[in-house]
Amino acid sequence: MSSGNAILAEGLLKDYVTYIRKGFLRKRKRIIHALRGVSFRVRWSEVFGLLGPNGAGKTTTVKIITTLLLPDGGRALVNGFDVVKNPIKVRESIGVVLNVERGFFWKLTGRENLKYFGMLRGLKGKDLEEAIDRVVKLVGLDELRSIDKLYEEYSLGMKARLALARALLHDPPILILDEPTLGLDPPAARGIRELLVRLAKREGKAVMITTHNMFEAEIICDYVAIISSGKISAQGTVHELKRLVADKIPVSIKFSGKIASDLNAVSKLLFESTLSPHIRIKEVRDGFEARILVDAGNEEKAIASSINALVSKGFNVRRAEVVEPSLEDVFIAVTKGDGENAVIND
Ligand SMILES: Nc1ncnc2c1ncn2[C@@H]1O[C@H](COP(=O)(O)OP(=O)(O)O)[C@@H](O)[C@H]1O
Ligand SMILES: [Mg+2]
Q1: Is 55 a pocket residue for ligand 1 (Cβ < 6 Å)?
Q2: Per CATH, is 247-324 categorized as 2.40.100.10?
């Protein structure tokens, strides 16, 4: 493990070119600016989170950092090696989980799968056996002999652990995971999160994850960079990020009624009644929650006018209160509504 940053990205650019069919034989070129100058650093023994909504550019960033995709501009150093000039050294330095289920053999056991991938990494004999025992223990697959079950019998949570074990076989100092808990049930997701924190804190590895889940970023990441439309809109520790919105007070309004067709109309209604540009509405268990960031001192007025506006349109307001700021509020503040397509999980 070298000194300095585990990962350093500076001004990464990436465009995708796609063609839209316009009738028979005619197509039009469309350029998507997926990354528009992405910079961040990941330190050793740290869990770093790249947080952003769908389409923000998270996977594109991960693909560049892991040498699967060439950037159009900017540069990235991983363990001190340039991803374009020295991809082999970069690959030796990283363990990658891009898609939990990708590439495993369904008719082999977990252990047999690891053997296969260990051999691809150049491990053999006693070294291979030891590496497998080490990673299996590390990810907790030694319990209940799960490692000797057929892969097709694995739950998604076990598959996620095995993918992590595979990434750790060559004992890389850096782990890079694209949405590692996507689709997992809460206990399985919790298990993976605990594991990632342990790998950073006990093993001293640098762990970089991407996530669209603000709660996840808030609980496990030492450092968070918020990405939106191919740009980093804010970064810092969770504490530092929350300080960015210290002059704003989050107000939460829980309401129900017919909304399914038009979230934007309700958003507009609340904007007109509170004049806050920082508004997000999401579905919650039995209705909706509007989260509005208002200037300190205006919270009571905002609550009253929001309730009036919603009630006048036939909604039932069940609860309206001032709440503690969360990472979600930072996100609302820094993306200023252009994160419209964000998915927020609780
Ligand atoms: N292979 C591709 N071809 C064209 N557009 C792509 C391709 N991959 C991603 N994109 C587009 O680039 C943007 C960023 O995508 P991505 O990096 O996958 O975001 P995220 O992982 O944050 O959801 C999106 O607008 C997406 O539609
Ligand atoms: Mg993605």
Answers
A1: yes
A2: no
